[in-house]
Amino acid sequence: MQLRYRYRLHPTEQQRRALAQAFGNARVVCNEAVRARRDAYWQGEAFPTGPVSSKRLITDAKRIDERGWLGECSNIVLRQAIRLASNGFPSGATARSDRPAPERRESRLVVGPAQRAEFGHDR
């Protein structure tokens, strides 16, 4: 049995500001991770791994005055943003060869009720 739950949040004004700040910080870090990955691809270098990109995009960025506001947010949110950004790329693109290989899907034969009857399947 599958159940579905629906939740509705009614945050206070202070909670709203904290959520907006967390989402904004995650967006900035995610965009920086995508940019770093794209730059590494076009320069033919290996992509930055999780700990390296985490140190560069979060820890080092917090020490810069322009990005000091990243310290006001939880590190968990920022690390998850980096993880989500790296999951958006195909795993076959490790370094720039020519282009990343497209992900191929195997064609699946979908058999509907009419075809099942034709093939002699009852179910």
TrEMBL record:
Source organism, top-level taxon: Bacteria
Organism: Halosaccharopolyspora lacisalsi
Listed name of the protein: Transposase
Biased composition (Basic and acidic residues): 96-108
Sequence segments annotated as region (Disordered): 88-123
All residue ranges annotated as the Transposase putative helix-turn-helix domain in the record: 1-44
Pfam families the record matches: HTH_OrfB_IS605
